[in-house]
Inverse folding.
């Protein structure tokens, strides 16, 4: 593993997430389950707010009458909710059945499993010993990690490291093996002697299950979806035939996806069960490049508008040679997570121009690239390897009078990765004056008010003199409009601290003056400014600040 940018910050975030009920390891009382996570009371509210914000901004709140800034034309958006288990042919035609795999490699000694393509190695020799040292570190950390592994293997002290003779440059293990390095000579990343790595094996990332009571044959074999996108493609015609939408339009879905990741890691970043928020946007082939640019920029702005720090975000356009030949662009929106090495970014969302690949696959059968064209892949008998539905998924444009298979722009986001980025970004430590004016250190989650699990806390200064009654009155009227909490336990300073850690943007304190003139103090989490506001105006005031 590479050295993280700020491991201690990450450790504090993971600890706060557990302590305050944002995220728990799944099945924790049985020791947890690698790659699976549960959302606690605050976490579920944060994740729901994030998904609601996406659904509102992309679908429900979309204005179909006017082209938004940067859009080539007005467009429509529709929603969908498909099943997790779909007809197995879906995954055969989409390519997931044949191609959605990673190569894995096991270490017989350490019992650890690695992604084959994540290992890097280099020949090292000392006196009469020579081995191909490997590491699963990445980026700039590789040379130092290889040196540390070799030092340990040869039993050297730090000052003897220069005695190691290195041959060649650090090379990805698959390339080294292709060039003649044997696994028998390779020292696994966590092994004490060479020869413990097994031969690489292909591993399909789809979770398999069986449908119905009779298990055994190939007919009842099914898969948990590894992406929500395919449910949208196979319902393209249903949506078109049953709603008013005309091209250009998008179909959106939020839902669970499952991938049997070989090495789930970095808290929720690479999980085996996670949620995606995907849009498949269908457009005229001639307009697709302009729509691609629109969606790339629109999705980038969404993260900024919800408060992610611009300097920690990166929009990375894929190089031309990384693109499928039918694609005129793919970009990733990436975030500098604190568990990554300096200069590294992790993907939050991909925006891909997919051409007509998906709709054609489900019409004609699994496609492959041949001489620059997409053609149906055939078996030795000349028949399609995976037969498509045979349904016509082309579109007749009644304005231009043309028939075509729409091109697709796909902004595909991970809800859990976004929650993790917002949690990491929100985490702050600062100093605030306590009730006696002395500086007190605090941990505060500076979440955007739209995402904050609790919008406001209502705090009677003391538990007597009619303050709880007045605070309760406000709590009941505010609760109808937004998530709020009533808290009368402990000093007001401790109550502020609790709400700061939960990311609550506003605290409303009912005090002696409130009883006389129905005003209260409104404390802002970030600026710490306290204003005196009429109690009856609070719901309207906060509603305005939330939008
Ligand atoms: N339909 C396209 C698609 O699924 P992807 O890049 O494989 O593309 C899209 O996934 C998004 O889903 C990623 O950008 C990421 O946010 C999220 N995602 C993918 N694998 C994940 C995993 N193992 N754990 C958490 N989120 C994941």
């Amino acid at each position: 593993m590479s050295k993280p940018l700020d491991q201690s910050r990450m450790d504090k975030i993971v600890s706060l997430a557990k302590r305050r009920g944002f995220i728990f390891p799944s099945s924790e009382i049985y020791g947890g389950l690698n790659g699976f996570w549960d959302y606690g009371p605050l976490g579920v509210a944060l994740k729901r707010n994030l998904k609601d914000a996406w659904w509102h901004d992309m679908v429900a709140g979309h204005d179909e009458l006017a082209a938004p800034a940067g859009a080539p034309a007005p467009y429509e958006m529709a929603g969908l909710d498909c099943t997790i288990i779909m007809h197995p042919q879906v995954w055969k035609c989409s390519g997931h059945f044949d191609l959605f795999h990673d190569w894995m490699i096991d270490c017989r000694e350490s019992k650890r499993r690695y992604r084959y393509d994540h290992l890097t190695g280099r020949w090292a020799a000392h006196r009469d010993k020579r081995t191909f040292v490997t590491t699963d570190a990445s980026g700039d950390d590789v040379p130092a990690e290889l040196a540390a592994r070799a030092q340990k293997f040869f039993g050297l002290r730090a000052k003897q490291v220069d005695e190691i003779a290195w041959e060649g440059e650090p090379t990805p293990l698959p390339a080294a093996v292709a060039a003649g390095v044997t696994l028998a000579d390779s020292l696994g990343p966590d092994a004490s002697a060479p020869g413990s790595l097994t031969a690489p094996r292909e591993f399909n990332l789809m979770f398999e299950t069986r449908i119905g009571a009779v298990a055994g044959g190939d007919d009842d074999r099914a898969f948990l979806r590894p992406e929500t996108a395919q449910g949208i493609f196979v319902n393209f015609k249903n949506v078109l035939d049953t709603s008013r939408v005309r091209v250009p339009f998008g179909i959106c879905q939020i839902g669970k996806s499952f991938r049997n990741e070989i090495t789930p890691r970095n808290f929720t970043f690479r999980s085996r069960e996670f949620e995606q928020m995907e849009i498949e946007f269908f457009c005229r082939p001639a307009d697709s490049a302009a729509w691609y640019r629109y969606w790339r920029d629109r999705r980038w702005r969404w993260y900024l508008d919800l408060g992610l720090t611009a300097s920690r975000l990166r929009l990375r356009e894929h190089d031309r040679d990384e693109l499928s030949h039918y694609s005129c662009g793919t970009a990733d929106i990436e975030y500098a997570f604190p568990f990554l090495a300096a200069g590294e970014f992790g993907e939050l969302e991909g925006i891909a121009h997919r051409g007509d690949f998906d709709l054609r696959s489900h019409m004609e059968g699994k496609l492959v690239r041949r001489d620059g064209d997409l053609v149906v892949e055939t078996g030795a008998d000349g028949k399609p390897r995976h037969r498509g539905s045979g349904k016509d998924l082309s579109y007749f444009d009644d304005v231009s009078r043309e028939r075509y298979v729409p091109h697709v722009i796909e902004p595909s986001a991970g809800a859990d990765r976004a929650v993790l980025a917002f949690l990491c970004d929100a985490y702050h430590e600062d100093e605030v004056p306590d009730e006696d004016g002395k500086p007190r250190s605090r941990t505060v989650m500076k979440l955007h008010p739209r995402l904050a699990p609790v919008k406001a806390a209502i705090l009677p200064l003391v538990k007597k003199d009619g303050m709880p009654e007045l605070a309760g009155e406000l709590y009941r009227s505010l609760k109808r409009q937004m998530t709020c909490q009533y808290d009368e336990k402990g000093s007001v300073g401790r109550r502020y601290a609790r709400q700061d850690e939960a990311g609550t943007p506003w605290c409303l304190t009912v005090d002696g003056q409130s009883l006389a003139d129905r005003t209260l103090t409104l404390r802002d989490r970030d600026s710490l400014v306290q204003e005196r506001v009429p109690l009856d105006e609070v719901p309207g005031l906060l509603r305005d600040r939330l939008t």
In short: Residues 21 and 41 are 6 Å apart (CA to CA). The chain has 15 helices and 29 strands. The longest strand covers residues 273-283. Residues 41-60 form the longest helix (20 residues).
